[in-house]
Design goal:
The protein is of the alpha+beta class and 233 residues long. It has nine helices and four strands. It has a four-stranded antiparallel beta sheet with strand order 1-2-3-4. α2 packs across α4 and α4 packs across α9. The longest helix is centred in the first third of the chain and has 26 residues. The N terminus is likely disordered.
Length: 233
Amino acid sequence: MAQKGHSSVEEVLLGPGLFRFLKDLKAHNDREWFTENKARYEAEARDPMLRLIGAFSGPLSAISRHFIADPRPTGGSMFRIYRDTRFSKDKSPYKTHLAAHFPHRTVSAGGVHGPGFYLHLEPGGSFAGGGLWHPDADSLLKVRQAIVAKSAAWKTLRKSGLEIEGEALMRVPQGFAADHPFAEDLKLKDFYITTGFTNAQVLAPDFVDQVAAACRQAGPLVAFLCKALDLPW
């Protein structure tokens, strides 16, 4: 029986064509090849990913009703396959992975740079999780201030064993004590937790449940970040 929030196991199952397409795209990352294989991209990669996003709406609401899983092909949770090469030395026109962001319902929450959950599908490098990535300076300051002001809550989160990842400064930022018990955390510029998946796990019938479990694991961190930024959780 399909679980609540799932349309059906068969409908949301990602097929092996997904990884075959992404591997082929990596080997032929040019517009001519992609144009010739666009129908294959849509059938084997884009459309299954959109169905997965739609199926994840229910499980995501069970974690927090303030986050969105939007299965629209344009303007929804799924990131475009096209790379922005304007400021990159790498001029490859296409991403060789699929990704989706599940942002906070509050429009002003920062979009991809606000608290949210994330799914990344790539041959041998798939993962899901949640947190705060590359926040603006004001949001980053508020999170650091919350770590200091709510040290007990942060200590509880840290003692749970969750591994918080992110880029970090070399030194504790100005305005914070260098000898603070959470000095290393105050150096962080990102705050997120991820769970990796094998290719087989991604293609398994219960993958939506696995994504939900990864996001639930990141939930306490995302909840702390939301409260630090005065966002409902």
